[in-house]
């Protein structure tokens, strides 16, 4: 027979089911509410690859980054523009753990708090950074540069003992094709053009299979043809991973055809399609007022 005040049947097998229902303790209710609030607060960052909220960083009292908030979706490519000193490099330094922020939140892939990790850990998590100047091994062939990068995670001894697997060979072929360096695979890196060296370095980063690639002024010093090819290359890369590109060259940014964030004095001044951002009077003023 069922207890009319307790619809749970008394079976005897599980005594917990037989206990009468009581209202939760007010403290339990408070905890549940807090948990729900926390889940609500973290919901927006779950769908994002990179989440910066109210990030600040001062150098000797000067606010290089000042309440910067930025959200990058999984699989998104974003162009970051802004006049000299806007905080673009400092932002990249903070994301990659080279510089620690004074305040603010930075989450990677929804849940990982980047402010609790150092540079090496952040790189190992899948955030690759391409600096402006290419740093390839000049005396090695294109292929060997990529092989070293592919083997990078194994460590030096393991690399020396390692025999190239079919998977590595396939990946090498993919990266050569993606970076437009297939015909140059046997050439020494020293013999590549400036643009090709940049592509090789991008290929070396791809060998680490990053989820997020940060690229600092990739087309500085490139020919117009190389600049256009780099835009295509980055668009190809962004099919499988997220990319943040810092760039001054507006022709190149237009070629990328992605959402643009304009930084100024360490915060976001404007965000949206390039045409809208470049027509924004605030943006025009900071660029013309330089
Ligand atoms: N380590 C540091 N010590 C002191 N000041 C710094 C340091 N790093 C950056 N700054 C200052 O912070 C501000 C932002 O610099 P940052 O290099 O991030 O700008 P940027 O947008 O990358 O500029 P650019 O386009 O010229 O590379 C600048 O005023 C710079 O002088």
- Global shape: globular
- How far apart the termini lie comes to 84 Å
Secondary-structure-based class equals alpha/beta
Task: Indicate the percent of residues in helices.
Answer: 40-55%
Radius of gyration: 25 Å
Q: Strands of the biggest beta sheet: in what spatial order?
A: 6-7-8-3-9-10
Number of helices: 12
Q: Give the H and E element order.
A: HHEEEHEEHEHHHHEHEHEEHH
Percentage beta strand: 15-25%
Bound molecules: adenosine-5'-triphosphate
On the 0 to 100 scale, the average pLDDT is: 86
Count of distinct strands: 10
- Low-pLDDT regions: 1-18
Largest sheet features? 6 strands, mixed
Overall description:
Residues 50-290 form the ABC transporter domain. Pfam families: ABC_tran (PF00005), BCA_ABC_TP_C (PF12399). This protein has 290 residues and is an alpha/beta fold. Helix 9 links the parallel strand 7 (212-216) and strand 8. Helix 5 (142-151) runs parallel beside helix 8 and helix 9 runs parallel beside helix 10. The chain starts with 14 loop residues before the first helix and ends with a helix. The strands form 2 sheets. The protein has a 6-stranded mixed sheet with strand order 6-7-8-3-9-10, with helices on both faces. Strands 2-1-4-5 form a 4-stranded antiparallel sheet. It has 12 helices and 10 strands. The longest helix has 21 residues, at 26-46. Adenosine-5'-triphosphate binds at residues 59, 64, 82, 84-90.
């Amino acid at each position: 027979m069922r207890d009319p005040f307790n619809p749970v049947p008394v079976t005897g097998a599980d005594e917990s089911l037989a206990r009468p229902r009581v209202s939760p303790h007010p403290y339990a209710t408070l905890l549940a509410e807090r948990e729900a609030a926390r889940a609500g607060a973290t919901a927006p960052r779950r769908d994002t690859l990179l989440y910066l909220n109210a990030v600040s960083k001062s150098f000797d009292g000067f606010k290089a980054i000042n309440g910067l908030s930025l959200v990058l979706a999984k699989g998104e490519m974003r162009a970051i523009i802004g006049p000299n000193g806007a905080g673009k490099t400092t932002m990249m330094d903070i994301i990659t753990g080279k510089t620690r922020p004074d305040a603010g939140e930075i989450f990677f892939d929804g849940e990982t708090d980047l402010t609790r990790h150092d540079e090496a850990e952040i790189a190992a998590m899948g955030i690759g950074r391409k600096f402006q100047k290419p740093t390839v091994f000049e005396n090695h062939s294109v292929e060997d540069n990529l092989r070293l990068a592919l083997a990078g995670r194994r460590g030096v001894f393991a690399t020396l003992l390692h025999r190239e697997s079919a998977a590595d060979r396939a990946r090498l072929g993919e990266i050569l094709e993606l970076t437009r360096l297939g015909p140059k695979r046997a050439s020494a890196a020293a013999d590549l053009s400036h643009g090709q060296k940049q592509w090789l370095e991008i290929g070396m980063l791809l060998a680490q299979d990053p989820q997020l690639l940060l690229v600092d002024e990739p087309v500085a010093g490139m020919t117009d043809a190389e600049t256009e090819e780099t835009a295509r290359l980055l668009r190809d890369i962004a099919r499988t991973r997220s990319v943040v590109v810092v760039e001054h060259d507006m022709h190149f940014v237009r070629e990328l055809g992605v959402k643009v964030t304009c930084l100024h004095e360490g915060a976001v001044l404007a965000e949206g399609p390039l045409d809208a951002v470049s027509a924004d009077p605030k943006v025009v003023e900071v660029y013309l007022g330089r």
